[in-house]
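Predict the 3D structure for this chain.
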Amino acid sequence: MIISASRRTDIPAFYSEWFFNRLREGYVLTRNPMNYHQISRVSLLPEAVDAIVFWTKNPTPMLPRLGELEKYPYYVQFTLTSYGPEIETGLPSKNQVIISAFQTLSKEIGRERVVWRYDPIFFSDRYTMEYHCKYFKVLASKLSPYTEKCTVSFLDLYRNTERNLKPFGFVPDDLKMQEELLERFAEIAKECGIDIDTCAEPHDFDHLGVGHARCIDQERIERISGTKLKVGRDRNQRAACGCVSSVDIGMYNTCLNGCRYCYANYQESMIQRNFRSHDPKSPLLFGNVTEGDVIKERR
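Done. Predicted structure below.
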């Protein structure tokens, strides 16, 4: 079993105490996003978990406790973009906090276990082609000693993301714009000694030296753990996604990063309500088991 922690929310940034409590207890309960009263009981015992994949924009709260993960193979998908605080409203300073956290994490666990994500990419009056290329190069120069790979993707427009970005002069892209940007990104990445690939993009950019990513990556897990896995493709993801199967233990509408492009948050009042109901000692990320809930063991 591979644990995803989590595509739906930033567990390292906001729920690390809860997560380490769950490791100590040996299990976690997670609600089905499509069926609120259906709960899975997921084992977190080292003998049941092949790997943990973390997703975060700020692992700072987790850094002092990395030793508690020593029994688990794991790596981190670390998103670090060039957007300002009007877009990523809940993040601390990138120059003062986030870049340093990336470097510290890599020094602690190794550059092969920190994957840099520059995504999602969108264009606007401020965030132009030139802007992205300029600051991608700045970030790549600072992060190249601390990571092997950068994964990028272009924004998928959902109703809530389109609404949230409209006030910022959002400019729709096309394949020509995507190819131009990726060609320039690939040149920068090559200069810095970083591999580059795309996440769940339907178009093929191999001719630019940009492959398709597997964010939940069997090969990376096997390299880190030293063991072979028998695991299939994740059928719950988009058709262009290359990830292998995993169990996500997060929940939607619980992340406080406040990113305007986020698809996992769609109602601010619900985010705040869920966060207020969070109990670090509960087996659920927020709330408690109630009458009518059905708990089943996740094999």
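Residues 175-192 form the longest helix (18 residues).
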